[in-house]
Amino acid sequence: MLLKLLVFLVPAAFASDPTQRQLKPVKGVPHSRLHLYQPSTTDTFRCIDGSQTILYSQLNDDYCDCQDGSDEPGTSACGNAFFYCSNVGHKGNFIPTNRVNDKLCDCCDGSDEYDSGVTCPNICDELGRAARVEREKVANVARKGFQKRQEMAKEGQTLRDSKLKDVEPLRQERATLEPERSRLEQDKKSAEEAEKKLQDEHRNQWEVIRNEKKKLRAAEWFEQLDLDKSGKIDREELRQNLFLDDDNDGFVNEDEVKAYLTIDEADLEHFQSSMYDRLKSAKNRHLEEARIKEEDERERARALENAPDDDDLLAEEDRHEGEAAEPINSEDEDDKMPEYPQEVKDAQEKAREARRLFDEVNEKTGDLDAKIREAEDFANSDYGEDYSWAALKDKCFDRNVQQYTYQFCPFGQNTQKDTGAYSGTSLGSFKNWSGPEGNKYSKMHFGDGQQCWNGPKRSTDITIECGEENELVEVTEPAKCEYLFTFRTPLACSDPDKEVVHDEF
């Protein structure tokens, strides 16, 4: 009895499995979905969205019963349904059902015009052959590119390992140099303090002497300006000095005097503190202007004379050169600080040597710090799952478009410049990989480029495609200051022999 029951149940079990029984074909439905369109035990069909159940005989009856259009995959009754073209010999595809029996051949096998009266030639074999040739061509490019990618991945991994291997020795060397650097820094500080102290002492001594001389010169000039010897200078006395004639009208007016004497009378103390330097500058300026004017007049006079002998002309020029070489005011010599004594020079030399020794060690430690940072940054950067992109670090690729040269530098900065120019406009620096989930390394984003006039900062998005060589193949600007680059590289190639092509979706 048990044996008979098993014989009865096993065929029933197989019959309930759509992969184990013969599926009834339904027009417009791919084989992968046929199990959804098989009649139930009650000879009904449940809409794919589960919204309702209809009679199985209502499938493809040219009337839309299901809201999702799933009951009419082979007719044009539902506007939201799709018809499947089997396209044997080529690639199956879906078309909207409103194209079914519209007297236009959409499927390469002509199956969409089964009831329109139009005879469509079956060109699937021809299209399939062309598609296979193209696929093989693309596969060959991908195959060669993938081989180069593997080589570049080894190069990137070797570079990473080398940099990481060098980090610890660099840190040890840095630690060894630090005590010496600290000692030399302290030596430099002490030597510079001693140098500054001696320089300040010398300068202060000179300034005391200079100020005393200045007071004496000011007192002498005060005596000359104090015409009535009253111990004070008034505006009338100051008006007698034509070097204050700023407008060159031949006399000194009230306003020109007030510019230097703001009170009614000036005693010696006020003259020394508030008037002497300004009057001295005014006098020197007046003398310089007079000298230039005199030279101009001599030049004009020579031009009006008959051409003199060469010897006379040279003698005249030498005489005037001698006059011009004389200082306007010998008092300026007192404003120059005398040369440092030997004690200060020795301190200066000692400080220079201390700075040199410190700078040498400090430069070495700075170089070591930079190398350590570079290695750590390299190790923490995202150069792809196999590190192949590391092979393109610090490399750039150009493309000329009309009068511009565009430059793409992975992990660096993109630029636009006039062809032949040395510098250009920044189109942004590398920010991140921006490809979609599952294909992260298919896009790059560059941002924070040079600000546009009345616009945003420039930015660039890079689309990365498989190619045998590294090449910037396209540059566009779809929006103001937003650029799109297309870059082909072996680094975007995967193994075509491991890819699976699906004809149905």
Automatic annotation (TrEMBL):
Source domain of life: Eukaryota
GO CC annotation: glucosidase II complex
GO terms for biological process, alphabetical: N-glycan processing
Short name of one Pfam family: PRKCSH-like
Sequence ranges assigned to domain EF-hand in this UniProt record: 213-248
Span of domain MRH: 381-495
Residues spanning the signal sequence: 1-15
Basic and acidic residues bias (residue ranges): 290-303, 342-351
One MF term in the entry's GO annotations: calcium ion binding
Region Disordered, annotated ranges: 149-201, 290-351
Keyword entries, A-Z: Calcium, Disulfide bond, Endoplasmic reticulum, Signal
Protein name per Swiss-Prot or TrEMBL: Glucosidase 2 subunit beta
Species in which this protein is naturally found: Caenorhabditis brenneri (Nematode worm)
